[in-house]
């Protein structure tokens, strides 16, 4: 039987394919723009036939029909490894639960501990050898599909095929069902325009990045601002080793700054795990020999990250307390995003020769009532600690950049207060004294 004969034998309508799901099953949707829209809709239509079906997703941008169609969660229970803005709103409504993790361990969780009865994801069309590429979900797909009892692939003709060294595809012989159907254009995620604080923070970061550095840029507007400023700088021969490839890297490529020429690990290739951004980004990564996707168990392994000399990791956070604990995923008890790979890259960059790990944030924010609040706080009250104080490294606000590594509690407090918004420094000083961090005779 040829691979095309096998393909046709496994071809099903979405409605036929989702009959594989039974009550009590665990179903996996993988991640981001590889979310299986047709299968999700067909499965939602079976709501009243099913009970206690549990789902795992990851940075899915919605709509997720199985979550929205069952507000009482009697039939479907949706969970995510990392909240997108859409999934955050589901959490606010009680329609989604967060699964704590660090990305480097995601494959380990599946291989050792988790059950996957049915895995579903979107993929580009099959190639002539019978392989389906994992596209923008390569970082997480293989371990999930390897663990699944049943694998259903939904062909999305718009997805880019992304080259890789390993773990980037599955053969038709390992697939149970294939679904075809029409899909709209791929979701795009415009880059937010930087404001004065963003530019001030980026201006502090750019001088810290040497020519030949390898970059990891996290989610959010700040990494894209840094990428834009680097594109206009004199820095040359930058490399890419990142969990997420976004538009900042495409901008650097267009400016001639992203060459990967001086990387010791995978020279000439930018390494990533997942991809989402603009249409231009999808076109750039598609069949591009200079971009390789691989499982995050490899891409996010600190020992692997550290093999890149001058590894520069730039991520964002929500708040930091005077002890140096970093929260990048919740506002109090409200889940905002997730741990993701921030701790992976903070660790890997610290171990790299010449490497540095930066956590960035605005010093303050203004709430909907016009009241300003500090993002540097005396201590956390229910906020989730993403990066423990024992691994705190560089922290950056628009008022400065400080290095907390190896610092005593009073030194950390002094450094953090120095980059806090001026309106809160006296208040933070008093808190440091009350918490017995600051020696009474020393005013920070």
Write down the domain tally.
2
Instruction: Give, in spatial order, the strands making up the sheet with the most strands.
Output: 1-10-8-6-2-3-4-5
Distance between the termini: 76 Å
- The named CATH superfamily of the largest domain: Acetyl-CoA hydrolase/transferase C-terminal domain
Q: From the coordinates shown, what is the CATH architecture of the largest domain?
A: 3-Layer(aba) Sandwich
Number of beta-strand segments: 25
- Uncertain runs are none
Domain Acetyl-CoA hydrolase/transferase N-terminal: 4-183
Keywords: Cytoplasm, Fatty acid metabolism, Hydrolase, Lipid metabolism, Transferase
Main location: cytoplasm
Active site: 243 (5-glutamyl coenzyme a thioester intermediate)
Short structural description:
This protein is an alpha/beta fold. It folds into 2 domains: 3-179, Glutaconate Coenzyme A-transferase; 196-434, Glutaconate Coenzyme A-transferase, CATH 3.40.1080.
What topology emerges from the helices and strands here?
Elements: H1 3-10, E1 11-12, H2 14-17, E2 26-28, H3 37-44, E3 53-57, H4 65-68, E4 76-80, H5 85-92, E5 97-98, H6 106-112, E6 118-123, E7 131-133, H7 138-147, E8 150-155, E9 169-171, E10 177-179, H8 196-205, E11 214-217, H9 221-231, E12 239-245, H10 247-254, E13 270-275, H11 279-285, E14 291-293, H12 296-299, H13 302-305, E15 311-316, E16 319-321, E17 326-327, E18 330-331, E19 334-335, H14 342-351, E20 356-360, E21 364-366, E22 372-374, E23 376-377, E24 394-397, E25 400-403, H15 409-418, H16 425-434
Parallel strand pairs: 1-10, 2-3, 2-6, 3-4, 4-5, 6-8, 8-10, 11-12, 11-15, 12-13, 13-14, 15-20, 16-23, 20-24
Antiparallel strand pairs: 7-9, 16-17, 18-19, 21-22, 24-25
